[in-house]
Amino acid sequence: MYTIKILRGGLEKRDQVIKALTERLERSRFTARLEPATIYARGSVEGFPAIFVKPVRLRQAKPYCGQHAGECQINPFTKEPPRKPNAKYLEFADWVEFHGVVNAVLNRLRVHADVWSTPTETRGKMWIRKDTRARVRYDSDTEYDVYGRAVHTWNLGTDDQFAGGAA
Asked: What count of other Cβ atoms lies within 10 Å of the Cβ of residue 20?
């Protein structure tokens, strides 16, 4: 799930973001459905306007081997990269580019919003924006499994990965 939670400006600002993001996506290599929503905090009767963005896909299929962070693994027995079927799914670099499109629209409109996704490869929220601070750096942590293979895990977003900004 990809979520844009509008912090200031109410329904009017949410609708403005939906319109601008829809226009921007039409000129990009991405497609997505933007669903207006409301997010309620636990115990709260007043909700925040939000946008659920799903499913995010590429307009044109390309070789795909997964959403994993880092480089594709080489098969230790054949010494070759995995076969990549064509698909419209996003890989790590595609996601980073899509996050940039979303943040550019929000910056242009001077929107206060929290933006996150919940990719299946991680536990917790992958932060893309915190209020007016767009995420500008994405990286992964590397560990090694019992067979010595590198396992890359997306960094969920540390404070030093966000650009300062004021709307």
From this structure: 16
